[in-house]
Amino acid sequence: MLEGYEQVDAPDTGDNIIPSLHEAFADCFPVGAAVSPEVLESAGPLIARHYNSLTAENHMKPIELQPEEGVYTFEKADLIANFARVHGMRLRGHTLVWHHQTPDWVFAGPDGQPAAREQLLSRMKAHIDTVVARYRGTVYGWDVVNEAIHDKGVELLRRSRWLELVGEDYIQKAFEFAHEADPDALLFYNDYHETVPAKREKIYTLVKSLLDRGTPIHGIGLQAHWNMYEPSLEDIRAAIERYASLGLKLQFTELDLPMFGSDDKRRDVKRPTEGMIEQQRLRYAQIFDLFRSYKDVISGVTFWGAADDYTWLDHFPGKERKTWPMLFNDAHEPKPCFWSVVEK
Ligand code: GLA
Fold this sequence. Notes:
This protein has helices at 21-24, 37-50, 62-65, 75-86, 117-134, 161-166, 170-181, 197-212, 233-244, 274-293, 336-342, and strands spanning 31-35, 53-56, 90-97, 139-146, 186-191, 219-222, 249-255, 298-303. The protein is of the alpha/beta class.
């Protein structure tokens, strides 16, 4: 258990002139990367040097940890936890309850019927107890519930099997179970499009209602899957102010800035142009300037990847192409946007 990574020496090329990313933010917040064991193999030295927090990109999700009822598969998550321990990094847990990447058996009852509320809650509790207990002392905080808000219209909660079969208190229950399993862990609600004003207000409403009911929730995770043009700095600032007014800590949990706008479907751009590189440099600088100015309420910034050679956006359905969203290039070298965030 928990083997597979030895301490690696920092690479000796260029270290005297390339500052460590996380050290550049030592007086602000930890800087993390989402990883898999494969990425730790291919980019271990880069990750150990530049990031001081990890998140499992996939391997702590329900479908990975409990593919069949009572059958837990911890090997890959353990490799990530071990890398974090060996290198003295923080580890965020992602994610305990989600409508996606959760196996169908969770929602199945006897005779092909959907599971009853009590059965579903007891499965939720068993999963949370087992997973949170295993990483207690290593994972300092969990995304307890991911993406529960309805994106459109006036409905507050996403129509998911959790909502249909348990009822709207499934969210509160998840936080209570997680708190019982590890009273020291920081517990987050995590979502995307978190700066879009209408969704921001729904997230605010949900989290406020959880707090009003005494739910053990300590922070909001703002996924921050953004791009060159959206969201505006004003919308990011307004989201920070609004969520921080609840008295919670904020973390940017899945930051990436692909070099395309959301409606730019081109697949024939094989290399970024000088203009795209410059725009990304400026955009990252603006965003990290803003983060620095809110360092009192931001307790972590995690990139959803480590370098441009592999990111989930390369395979985003229907748009397979490189989008160069990270601070390090395919060869793990700092890009102009790296320098724009570390040089202050
Ligand atoms: C969401 C989830 C992440 C990941 C990304 C896309 O943001 O929270 O776990 O699946 O989508 O990779």
